[in-house]
Design a protein that fits this description.
The chain is an alpha+beta fold and about 90 residues long. It has a domain at about 10-50. The chain is about 20% helix and about 25% strand. It is built from 2 helices and 4 strands, in the order E-E-H-E-E-H. A hairpin with a 2-residue loop joins strand 3 (about 35-40) and strand 4 (about 45-50). The radius of gyration is 21 Å and the shape is elongated.
């Protein structure tokens, strides 16, 4: 799966003694954001995301897995390594 990032310049707006950002309506709709965001501080910068991520359908999940074309050849050896017999 190829993930691309896009950037936009947005201005900070005064909100009392703080600053805020205005997010375009099409982005809010695209990411299902209505009333709240999660702000994550990362070494690379600030990440804003919706409080809940939309769940993929099984069809979309399978399509994404097929498109990834991962090699599962080493999976066959898992049963032989003893992990499958562990009792929790």
């Amino acid at each position: 799966m190829l993930i691309t990032a896009s950037t936009r310049d947005i201005k900070l707006v005064a909100v009392g003694n703080s600053r805020g950002v205005r997010l375009p309506r099409e982005l809010l709709r695209k990411y299902g954001i209505s009333d709240a965001l999660v702000l994550e501080e990362l070494p690379e910068g600030i990440l804003l995301r919706g409080t809940s991520s939309p769940k993929l359908s099984l069809e979309q999940t399978f399509a994404d897995m097929a498109a990834a074309q991962e090699d599962w050849a080493d999976w066959d050896g898992v049963a032989d390594d003893g992990l499958a017999t562990l009792k929790w």
